[in-house]
Amino acid sequence: MTAPVLETDPAGYVYRIGTEEEGMQWIGRESESVEQPWPIDVEHIEHFVEGIQDPNPLYWSEEFARRTRWGGRIAPWGVIVLTAEHRVWRPEWMEPPSPTGTFFMSVPLPGNRLLATDYEIECFEPLRPGDRVFKSEKLMAIAPKTFRVGVGHQVTVKASFRNQKGQLCITDSRTVFRYKFGTGAGYRPAA
Amino acid sequence: MPLPPVVDTLYEDVRVGDRIPEIRIGPLSHTQFIFIASSHHDWYPGHHDVEYARAQGLPDIFMNATWQHGMFQRLLCAWAGPNSIPRRIKYRMGRPIVRFDTVHARGLVTGKRVENGEPLVDLDIWLDKQDADKVATGNATVVLRARGEVA
Fold first, then answer.
1. Which class is domain A5-38+80-179?
2. Using CA atoms, how far apart are residues A150 and B98, in angstroms rounded to an integer?
3. What domains lie within chain B, and their CATH numbers?
4. Which residues of A touch B65 (CB under 8 A)?
5. To probe the interface with B, which of A48, A119, A151 has the most B CB atoms within 10 Å?
6. What is the pLDDT along chain B (151 residues), one digit of tens a residue?
7. ipTM of this complex
8. Candidates B25, B68, B90; nearest CB to A120
9. Which of A4, B5, B26, B48 fits as disulfide partner to B102, beta carbons 3.0 to 4.6 Å?
10. Other CB atoms closer than 10 Å to residue A76's CB: what's the count?
11. Residue of A nearest to B67 (CA)
12. Does B9 reach chain A within 8 Å, measured CB to CB?
């Protein structure tokens, strides 16, 4: 068995490199459910809504939220989506995360860069401060594509997020263009 | 400061063809891009490193998909009220939203129905910016509170 060919981009994302044929064989694969590194917390909620300048008191005031159907503060539905995908640094004594964390990077394809193109979120149950979140993924589709930034494939992955009670809270279908750096008409090499 | 009242848009009061109140953000500074990258733990350099973004053929650093989702959710929930549920938000990103852009999020009611006892409203949603229309386009379904329904 040969070791996978891996490439790391400047952001630290690690890609498994392979052919389109190899990638297509992965369609339908599902990952195990993995607990996200942090539970939902108030600081994360406020940080998220500050970034979109959302004044909705449901996210800012426990007193207000108690007067709604939710009975307390909830997280905006998009808050959890990216929380586990990128770690800038961890101490050496900690177990390192998987180098190719999601199917966007772990599926073997020629591309070594990512650019998101399509997004769909469905919301079923809210996540609340203190909730632990468990994520699993399914690789839905791969389609060859060329955009201005490069030549590559659109990769669609559906992620499911459940709380500690096993309730399905959010599904997130993302399509990301995975392309080979330097192959696009718009690419301008650095001087 | 007193808390704002709990006000919901009721299902019965919505008509197909209604434009919902738009929201606006910007001009978006470099600091805001860094802040948003940190809030999403999204350190892909195209979202904060200008040289990297330009080397990819993009005009500047660009907003990520999660921020655009957040803008759509803010648009929908500001209109529908705190007891609403943004059941589904789907969109496609076209031209990038970059530094110093001012963005408007807008929506139009396209349908309403009751499904499994839930009062649902369908909308077209999109983002415009100061020099381009519909840089992101999509549709959404929101669960509204019905008249007489206890929150």
1. alpha beta
2. 19
3. 12-27+65-143 (3.10.129.10)
4. 116, 119, 174
5. A119
6. 889 999 999 999 999 999 999 999 999 999 999 999 888 788 888 999 999 888 877 899 999 998 999 999 999 999 999 999 999 999 999 999 999 999 999 999 999 999 999 999 999 999 999 999 999 999 999 999 999 887 6
7. 0.93
8. B90
9. B26
10. 23
11. A52
12. no
